[in-house]
Design brief:
Shape: elongated
Keywords: Membrane, Transmembrane, Transmembrane helix
Mean pLDDT: 78
Helix content: 55-70%
Pfam families: MlaD
Distance between the termini: 242 Å
Strand content: 5-15%
Largest sheet: 7 strands, mixed, barrel
Order of helices and strands: HEEEEEEHEHHHHHH
Number of helices: 8
Protein name: MCE family protein
Length: 337
């Protein structure tokens, strides 16, 4: 009885011990406790964590390489996340941490990648650049999750619907008629353009013919020029060109002499013109004085009293002459001794 009781107590104690060991092992396995110091820790600095929680996986190049060990508030406006990485895991060059949803069911993960591998999103890259420090702390940022993308997509869908409504309002029956009229006008314009191209093609053919004729004439002129050059060479060899040049020089000298004479003549004419101007001015002065009433000649020409007196004198002289002719003895007394 005593032996069986002891055996039962031993079995119960052993069972309790095994169960306790199993429970502790299960808890340690669930929490992924690092009993042997097989993990290395990495600190991440970010503005927010999104949906990241303790125990979420850490992924490097698609391979699970650790888990999130702690999340705590850091400096004002910042959050510090501690990542536990497996021993032997090497970080990529210039590493950064992207916090993003791993599935549609709300599971999140921390992905360690290179700065060059960050998606070309302006806000995301700005957040990474802002979170960088000079210490070993990695820069982190939260990528938009499915909910945010869905919200943005819903907003875009609403905007598209508004645009579609506006287009439907703008594109009414009148707009449709105007569009059909524009299409007909475009068809008419195409026809006119085709006719114009046909006519212009004929004109281009004519222009091509004219150009060909012009080229032929230019070729003939070139032949004539070549002939002229040959004649010039021949004339040069016979001395005719030298004679022509000498004659041209003689003509140039004579023309220069004639030009000099003409210049002298022009100078003399200028002097004569000046003298003539002086004579005309003086004559004009005389005429002005004669036409005036201040001088003797002016009084004689312009004073009516002088004219009347002169006319009276002439009449008296005529009467005197007539009286002398009639009665000469009255005026002439001739005595002969």
């Amino acid at each position: 009885m005593t032996t069986s009781k002891r055996t039962s107590d031993f079995i119960v104690g052993l069972t309790v011990l095994v169960v306790t060991v199993l429970i502790v092992a299960a808890v340690l396995w669930v929490k992924q406790a690092d009993l042997g110091g097989r993990q290395q820790q990495v600190v991440v600095r970010t503005r927010e964590v999104g949906g990241v929680a303790l125990g979420n996986p850490v992924v490097i190049r698609g391979v699970r390489s650790g888990r999130v060990e702690s999340i705590a508030l850091g400096a004002p406006g910042w959050v510090t996340i501690t990542l536990g990485l497996d021993r032997g895991v090497q970080l990529p060059p210039d590493p950064v941490v992207l916090l993003a949803a791993a599935s549609l069911f709300g599971e999140w993960q921390a992905t360690i990648t290179t700065a060059a591998g960050v998606p070309p999103d302006r806000d995301l890259r700005a957040a990474i650049a802002e979170a960088r420090t000079e210490s070993d702390t990695l820069a982190g940022a939260v990528m938009p999750d499915i909910a945010q993308l869905t919200t943005v997509a819903g907003r875009l869908a609403g905007d598209v619907a508004k645009v579609a409504d506006r287009v439907q309002v703008a594109f009414d029956d009148a707009a449709a008629k105007e569009l059909r009229e524009s299409i007909r006008n475009f068809a008419h314009l195409s026809t006119v353009l085709a006719k114009t191209i046909d006519v212009q093609s004929k004109n281009l053919d004519q222009i091509s013919g004219d150009v060909h004729t012009g080229v032929t004439r230019i070729s003939a002129a070139a032949d004539r020029l070549n002939t002229f050059s040959t004649r010039m060479d021949s004339a040069t060899s016979r001395g005719e060109l030298q004679q022509i040049v000498s004659s041209s020089q003689q003509a140039a000298r004579e023309l220069l002499t004639a030009t000099t004479n003409l210049r002298d003549m022009t100078t003399k004419l200028d002097r004569t013109e000046a003298r003539l101007s002086t004579v005309i001015a003086r004559a004009d002065s005389v005429f002005m004085k004669a036409n005036g009433t201040t001088g003797t000649l002016g009084l004689m020409m312009n004073d009516p009293a002088l004219y009347q007196q002169s006319d009276s004198l002439v009449r008296e002289l005529r009467a005197l002459v007539a009286d002398v002719k009639k009665n000469p003895r009255r005026y002439l007394n001739l005595r002969v001794f």
